[in-house]
Amino acid sequence: MEPYQQPLPEGTTLSIYNHDQLIFSDSGRWLSPLFAFERFLATYTGERDCLSAHDTAAGKAAAVLMSRMGIARAHINLVSDLAVAFYEEHGIRITWEKRIERLACKTEDLLFDLTSEEEMYRLLRRRAKLVRGVGIAVQQVSYAYPDLPPILEDLSFTVEQGGRLIIQGDNGMGKTTLLNLLLGKLTPAKGSILIDDQEITSLPKRTIGYIKQQQTQEHYPVSVREVVSMAVDPSLDIKQQKWEIDTALRRTGVYELADRNFFTLSGGERQKVSLSRTLCQKARLLLLDEPTSFLDAKSRKTLIEVLHSLSMDEMPTIIIVTHDKELETDLRWPVLRLEGKHA
Fold it and tell me: What residues make up the domain containing 119?
């Protein structure tokens, strides 16, 4: 019997070994030990070439998380048929003490018909309340500029916490107006907008991060690092602030531009710097206005990778307003098309 197959110590619900060496254990319930192990892996620098897990119980949810974390072997005290099928499909060696058809939990039911591992992982993070994002509820909103017909009329949609939405539409269909309504710069003529179940004016500072189109022609001496630093939490110590800034710049691929004047950069470079600033802000809602407008192919790829990473890890709520119909294919997010009447 391998070390990871030995009985768990009293009170322990999850043990992880690399080969024969115990590297992690936890006494939590449900999926919390596996999410704790995920956080452990983020800073773990030891060997992980043969990760083996012993868990008290595993349904499909645990199998999804273990596969994502690189578990190669698993021994489960109580395992479901759904979990065994997933383990075997993903090449994970699985042994157990008792096997049943299905665990009696809602999560097992929710995952039953899902096949996208990304969507399953996002669902599990939402159920574990590991989501930064806020819910949005737009209900029968109308807006008209003075002496003009309504540009938005009876528009309703919702976005769940950590949800993603692409808003598409031709010029004049109200995309920018909708962004300004979500930012609180405009007030609906009719209807309501709630963010995190609150009026926009009641939201805490730093809740919303806005990345606008990079069209400004201003010129004054401010470095890329200074632009990004404006969004860092000032309560952090200097060392932590620097780490946050450097991490954000590296994540968007503009670290080498840190000392350049922001206003001498190309539109695409400014866009990536603005995204870095928003990463430092740790906004719970990201609003992006035509984020691919000035990007070359390489910068566009970086942007999509960062958005994908955000939507899988931190999971803020993200809304993109764009003409770029290829984004729908690139991101595969839900799409709202503004086409005039919205009732």
Answer: 3-127
